[in-house]
Amino acid sequence: MATTLHVTDITASAVACCAPLVKEPMTQVDAEKVATTLKALADPARLRLLSIVAASQDQEACVCDLIEPIGLSQPTVSHHLRVLTQAGFLSRSKRGTWAYYRLQPDALAAVTTLLSI
Amino acid sequence: MATTLHVTDITASAVACCAPLVKEPMTQVDAEKVATTLKALADPARLRLLSIVAASQDQEACVCDLIEPIGLSQPTVSHHLRVLTQAGFLSRSKRGTWAYYRLQPDALAAVTTLLSI
Description:
2 copies of one chain form a homodimer. Chain A is an alpha+beta fold. Chain A contains 5 helices and 3 strands.
């Protein structure tokens, strides 16, 4: 069995920085971190990619199965997947020819905690 | 007592469109709506404004009290408040000279539902 390495960017915990934003005024430093993370989500193609990966078996999908449903070129899909991985929403592992992406639920949970009322 | 009218844009329910994104692949139409709403949040100044309003008494604040803590010009602050209002996160009411902004918790709740795992 091939050894696989799941890679998640160090920015994964970016939104784990802060108390819920309704609780106390957010600092500029925290707001910049959170805005960067939310920008990674705020794109139609990335939201669709994330939802397809999340709805897949084991919340993991091969990049080869993501291109057709999104209807964008492979470089464009790879770019969007890289943004989601750098923001911590996906991890990436290489097996043979293809890269596989897995949902990182903790990153979504950190965002929902931040926005909770 | 002056009559006040709270104005919330019709896009307020934009993110109430969809099931949690981890449950099923999101359609392009839904993804575009959600991306628009998330873009309204994905800005440091807007996150800070939202958190200041949310942490204020009755979750409401006068624009006159928002300019100094943010450290931006009044037109810039007003622009950011308009974006948040159009996205449904704040409502706006005019009393005398000043506009007051109030948190709309349902809009944040819709986002957390969408991102819930």
